[in-house]
Design a protein that fits this description.
The complex is a heterotrimer of chains A (332), B (279) and C (259). Chain A is an alpha/beta fold. Chain A is 30% helix and 23% strand. Chain A contains twelve helices and twelve strands. In chain A, the strands form two sheets. An eight-stranded mixed beta sheet of chain A has the order 6-7-8-3-9-10-12-11, with helices on both faces. Chain A has a four-stranded antiparallel beta sheet with strand order 2-1-4-5, with helices on one face. In chain A, a hairpin with a 2-residue loop joins strand 4 and strand 5. In chain A, helix 4 crosses helix 6 (160-172) and helix 6 (160-172) runs parallel beside helix 7 (190-207). The two termini of chain A are 28 Å apart. Helices cover 73% and strands 0% of the residues of chain B. Chain B has ten helices and no strands. In chain C, 31% of the residues lie in helices and 26% in strands. Chain C has a single domain (2-230), classed as P-loop containing nucleotide triphosphate hydrolases (Rossmann fold, 3-Layer(aba) Sandwich). In chain C, strand 9 and strand 10 (221-227) form a beta hairpin. The chains are: A alpha/beta (332), B mainly alpha (279), C alpha/beta (259). At the A-C interface, helix 7, helix 8 and helix 10 of A face helix 6, helix 7 and helix 8 of C.
Chain lengths: 332, 279, 259
């Protein structure tokens, strides 16, 4: 769904158009992203949902221009805060990353340097260490208690939730306009998850930063994001208001995913897996990537790539849906 | 993929490993087949003039006793290869068995073996060589013994690390619950998963062994005259460096090529076992 | 079938003259009848993995009794091979990478002295029951996807028709769509084979779907045990209720003071 102008007529903060990314190593080719189109306005909270192999993490990395090494862009463009990440100069890209982007990853252990205390983990956009006063300030914003103790601690002395809060502090210290969180809570205990998501939402609202949460947890995204993009096999198959997508999914994969999640079924209810396995993505598919696992595949699903169609503020890439048949109705 | 095809793949992809492998194979073939040609005997005193220049009969010239340098080089290659390889095979196998058994079977045995390995490891190799020679006298068996002693603790360490890694894996826990006997578990689950690391470490150890042997022979406590080894050739040629520098250059280049190639081959093979890149 | 009675486990650390003790599990008690699944839920450090090890016969309790069909659990793998089985978390390490899936699945049968032919037949039969075709037998573990490996793990666990199976975070590393397949598979197989099961997980939603009864652990103690069905509505214990909210099983009670 390309919302090329928000209500204020500004250009979108993030504009991804027809992005295709291919990874190649030792003769193995993976089409990680397949003509992905997405735009995000300032201050929006978007969820990107998918299972492993869906391409969601690759998309998150692409936004910061982090496609390197075995991965290369083979088509399309990514524009973040008016910077084309693939053609920008190293200085411009560095300014973008240090000034406007904040990344949060699944495991804070990777973000935090295990050999330094927290007070020495923060660096400004000029590369020099930040004063403790400023660090304490941002640690307060992430709602850490006993900040003096945290400042003196090494990462391994902090609990998972606290370490993740420090990582979030590092990401927001320079007041980014876009915060990208890739599975920010998967490595944390359940009791801490909601707190961290609450925190991210609060930070986004307070600072006006746009927030992208990449996750496999559709329910969390429903609660914390305004819109959600569902990814499968490197494509965005559905994009729309998160509560609507969850209650009335248009794409059969979204519907099947919701049916597979434990927690929504009632007593003696059923959860259903999706038969088969995700496709191998070794070459570009000229058909719907979900066809072989779909219970409602039509003839053309095996031959034609479904293109995104817009219906009622919802973008769906599905032949069934573009005929006006919703996935739920097809169940009978 | 069998291990043969995997080794072949490493050689295809890693140019340095391929070059190293070729050098070693070349030197090995030379040491095996060149004696079939009329190059003279390594101990043939008076085959040619003393410190003679290269000629058709003696392609690398002759040494201070008139012996053909090429023939001595060939014997040197044979000796150096053989001594190191045999010694490392023995110490490697022993180190592997002891390593796996003590690490897996009992924490006390593990601790003890570890400490003993530490002590052995901290002993300076040449000093160890001198000590053993003082007890046993110099000679081929002594050299092999010293090489074994020196390479044993490293193998123990490396095997211990690999065994610890394997022990923590779920399939070992499942094997224990299934009641499989310890011997079966060691043979079927541990051995194949430790074998690759052992093989790579052996290659490294062989290069160390060749260095040790050359050093000892050079110091007169290794291979004894008239038998040739690369280190012995260095020893013999040192006095004549002014008049016949090739007497040390040739064995020197051979030793360097051999040790470096073996080491680099080890590096290449290690990448097989220890893949670093993940897409 | 399974009885844990006031089981406590303490970990010792430090030198003999300056020992420190940590209680990994304190006075844990529960029973699992045949054909029934007990879900053991808790966060990291709750002690559930420790109890899991006790139930696998790998850890002897420092006090209390742990019994399987009247016999002490510790060492039961060696004394009564084939009675106990496990499906563990990591699909990458669940199989010996050097053995074919068929040989790995057959391992629990080796102690019983059956012939190689009988072993092959038994493996083919159990593979079919878990939804994998016979040719998976000759494949190596790295040729299988995560979900397929967990199916093969389940096959290995059930090949001896055990009385008791411990599932330790068995679906945690799987994608949601595959996880659902595996949960349903476990339910179905338990109905057919009637093994008792302990399902350890940090995911209350998955446990609630699968288990008949749930025990919630926190800091080494079992703070609540109740039928799984009661977890579909808010529970009395505040910690349990917070866990339900955090797992998205019940609506967050905004009037409740912060966590």
């Amino acid at each position: 769904m390309t919302n090329n102008k928000s209500e204020l007529g500004e250009r979108p903060l993030v504009n991804v158009e027809d992005l295709t990314v291919i990874f190649e190593a030792r003769g193995n080719i993976v089409h990680a992203l397949d003509t992905v189109t997405l735009s995000i306005n300032a201050g929006e909270r978007i969820g990107i949902v998918g299972e492993s192999g869906s391409g969601k993490s690759t998309l998150a990395l692409a936004l910061g221009g982090h496609i390197q090494g075995a991965g290369r862009r083979s088509g399309g463009s990514v524009d973040v805060v008016a910077t084309d990440v693939f053609t920008a100069s190293p200085e411009a890209l560095g300014r973008l990353r240090r000034g406007h982007l904040g990344y949060i990853f699944q495991n804070p252990i990777g973000t935090l340097d295990p050999t330094r205390k927290v007070s020495r983990q923060f660096f400004g956009t000029d590369g020099r260490p930040i004063s403790e006063a400023r660090i304490a300030n941002v640690l307060e914003q992430v709602r850490l208690d006993d900040i003096p103790r945290v400042l003196k601690s090494y990462p391994h002395e902090l609990s998972g939730g606290m370490a993740q809060r420090v990582a979030i502090a590092m990401a927001i210290e320079h007041e980014p306009r876009l915060i990208i969180a890739d599975e920010p809570t998967s490595a944390l205990d359940a009791s801490v998850r909601l707190q961290i998501l609450d925190l991210l939402k609060e930070i986004s609202i307070r600072s006006g930063a746009a927030l992208i949460i990449v996750s496999h947890d559709l329910k969390a995204v429903r609660s914390y994001c305004e819109r959600v993009a569902v990814m499968y096999a490197g494509r965005i198959v559905e994009f729309g208001d998160s509560k609507d997508v969850f209650s009335e999914p248009s794409h059969p994969y979204t519907a099947a995913l919701i049916r597979a999640i434990p927690g929504e079924e009632g007593i003696d209810g059923e959860i259903r897996g999706i038969r088969g396995n995700p496709p191998l993505l070794t070459k570009r598919l000229e058909a719907c990537a979900f066809a072989e696992r779909c219970d409602h595949a039509l003839d053309e699903c095996w031959r034609l790539r479904p293109e995104p169609t817009l219906q009622n503020n919802r973008s769906v890439s599905c032949h069934l849906a573009s005929r006006g048949i919703s996935a739920r109705a097809a169940e009978g | 993929m069998t291990w043969v095809s995997r080794v072949a793949q490493v050689l295809r992809e890693d140019r340095i490993a391929l070059i190293s492998f070729s050098v070693i194979v070349f030197l090995l073939l030379v040491s095996l087949f060149l004696p079939l040609l009329p190059i003279g005997q390594p101990d043939e005193v008076g085959y040619g003039p003393r410190i003679g220049a290269p000629s058709w009969a003696a392609l690398f010239g002759t040494d201070h006793l008139g012996r053909p340098v090429l023939a001595r080089l060939v014997q040197g290659l044979q000796m150096t290869f053989l001594l190191s390889t045999v010694a490392v095979l023995i110490s490697g196998l022993l180190g592997a068995i002891v390593g796996v058994a003590t690490t897996y079977l009992h924490p006390f045995a593990d601790e003890s073996a570890n400490r003993i390995a530490d002590v052995m490891f901290s002993f300076p190799p040449i000093l160890l060589g001198i000590l053993v020679v003082a007890v046993r006298g110099p000679g081929i068996v002594t050299i092999m013994f010293v090489i074994s002693l020196i390479t044993f603790p490293t193998m123990l360490r490396v095997v211990r690390a690999t065994t610890l890694d394997v022990m923590r894996r779920d399939f070992i826990v499942v094997s224990e619950i299934a009641g499989t006997s310890v011997i079966k578990r060691l043979l079927i689950h541990f051995t194949p998963n430790v074998a690759e690391t052992v093989a790579v470490q052996m290659v490294y150890s062989i290069s160390i062994g060749m260095l040790v042997e050359s050093g000892m022979s050079f110091l007169y406590i290794g291979v004894q005259a008239p038998t040739a080894s690369l280190g012995a050739l260095l020893r013999d040629g040192v006095s004549y460096i002014a008049v016949a520098p090739w007497l040390i250059f040739i064995p020197g280049i051979a030793i360097s090529a051999l040790i470096l190639s073996t080491n680099l081959l080890g590096d290449g093979l290690r990448r097989l076992v220890d893949p670093v890149d993940r897409v | 079938m399974i009885h844990l009675d006031h089981v406590s486990v303490r970990y010792r650390s430090g030198m003999p003259w300056a020992r420190t003790y940590t209680d990994a599990a304190r006075e844990a008690s529960f029973s699992i009848p045949e054909g029934s699944t007990l879900g053991l839920v808790g966060e990291s450090g709750s002690g559930k993995s420790t109890l899991g090890k006790v139930c696998l016969g790998l850890l002897r309790p420092d006090s209390g009794q742990a019994e399987l069909a009247g016999e002490p659990m510790y060492g039961i793998g060696r004394r009564r091979p084939g009675t106990l089985a496990a499906v563990l978390q990591h699909p990458e390490w669940s199989f010996n990478p050097k053995l074919t899936i068929g040989r790995s699945i057959g391992e629990p049968l080796w102690r019983t002295g059956i012939t190689r032919d009988e072993e092959i037949k038994a493996v083919a039969s159990i593979l079919e029951r878990v939804g994998l075709s016979e040719d998976y037998s000759s494949r190596l573990p790295n040729e299988l996807s995560g979900g397929q490996r967990q199916r093969a793990s389940i096959a290995r666990a059930l090949v001896t028709t055990p009385k008791f199976v411990v599932f330790d975070e068995a679906v945690s590393a799987l994608d949601v769509s595959i996880q659902a397949q595996i949960l349903n598979l476990i339910k179905e197989l338990q109905n057919q084979i009637r093994f008792a099961a302990l399902f350890i997980s940090h995911d209350l939603a998955a446990v609630r779907y699968l288990a008949h009864e749930i025990a919630v652990m926190s800091q080494g103690e079992i703070i609540a045990t109740a039928p799984a069905k009661s977890f579909y509505s808010p529970m009395a214990d505040p910690y349990v209720r917070r866990l339900q909210e955090a797992s998205g099983l019940i609506e967050v009670d905004k009037k409740e003071p912060g966590l």
